[in-house]
Amino acid sequence: MVKAVRIQHTGGPEVMEYVDVPIDEPGPGEVRVRHHACGLNYIDVYFRTGLYAQPLPAGLGMEAAGVVEAVGSGVTHLRAGDRVAYAGRPVGAYAEARIMPADNIVRLPDSISFDTAAAMMLQGLTVQYLFHRTFPLRGGETILFHAAAGGVGLIACQWARAIGVTMIGTVGSDEKAELAKAHGCAHVINYNTENFVQRVREITGGKGVPVVYDSIGRDTFIGSLDCLSPMGMMVSFGSASGPVPSFSLNELASRGSLFITRPSLMNYTAKREDLEQMAAQLFAMVESGKVKIDIRQRYPLSEVQQAHRDLEARKTTGSTLLIP
């Protein structure tokens, strides 16, 4: 038996239970991983509330780092004792240990700690695909990135600076603005005291930006469209304020033939070779020191309810860990 977080039905943080669950030997193509640290991400809230559906009862959590305890038949790229990390399905990382498909796991360089890995896999791989695959940045662009002081945002600030991109970031407080600046964000807008659309237009000399990366959703969606230059791309990759409401496609045409996409990390890492390439680039950025993972909150896994409350109240900044 191991301790793990389970939900019997969807709802608020109180639906999460810290319970004993059985754990088996890994089957073909599987490994058993003993977690040293688990990552907390906003997508976990989507699963807990039912915005993202899954069969119930169920676990929660999308990323963790630890050590392989046992390997099932047919697994050749991992062995017992390997340091590993992962981000993605199946859901259930909030646990002391679990069974995982071996193809979803990558070996962790000795230079990267378990805490760092658990804090960066989902968020770092997200920045990798956003900047290099969804809308490939070549350097010299000016972009808009919402929630610049969050876990994904602070990685994006540093990554943008490293590749020569001018990042405009939005935040919800002056304290978060200073944090984003300290991590390399060129221009920071406090959306609670400033009109971010107006400020983006001022910063860009009225041109707008070629791409907006938006994890907020409902509250920023139309404003994000208004920040785009003609034929710009809206990348909606989260719904922290709620789902984007239905809208007419004419909203895109009237603003200059805009593009819009709703990407998911799981689609970008579906092929093993893509996952390995993306992880290698992330590890290289961290090992070089160009991107530092800022872990600002740690909670015992048993206090997962409070961790979710703080996340939803936007009290957290940077990356957050749950420690089994």
UniProtKB/TrEMBL annotation:
Keyword Oxidoreductase among UniProt keywords: yes
Domain of life of the organism encoding this protein: Bacteria
Q: Which SMART domains match?
A: PKS_ER
Domain Enoyl reductase (ER) as annotated: residue spans: 11-322
User: In the UniProt record, which is one GO cellular component term?
Assistant: cytosol
Q: Does the keyword Chloroplast apply?
A: no
GO molecular function annotation:
mRNA 3'-UTR AU-rich region binding; NADPH binding; quinone reductase (NADPH) activity; zinc ion binding
- Cite the InterPro entries for this sequence: ADH-like_C, ADH-like_N, ER, GroES-like_sf, NAD(P)-bd_dom_sf, QOR-like, Quin_OxRdtase/zeta-crystal_CS
Classification via Pfam families? ADH_N, ADH_zinc_N
What keywords would UniProt list here?
NADP, Oxidoreductase
Annotated SUPFAM superfamilies: GroES-like, NAD(P)-binding Rossmann-fold domains
Q: Which NCBIfam families match?
A: PRK10754.1 (NF008024)
Name of the protein in question:
Quinone oxidoreductase
Native source organism of the sequence: Undibacterium oligocarboniphilum
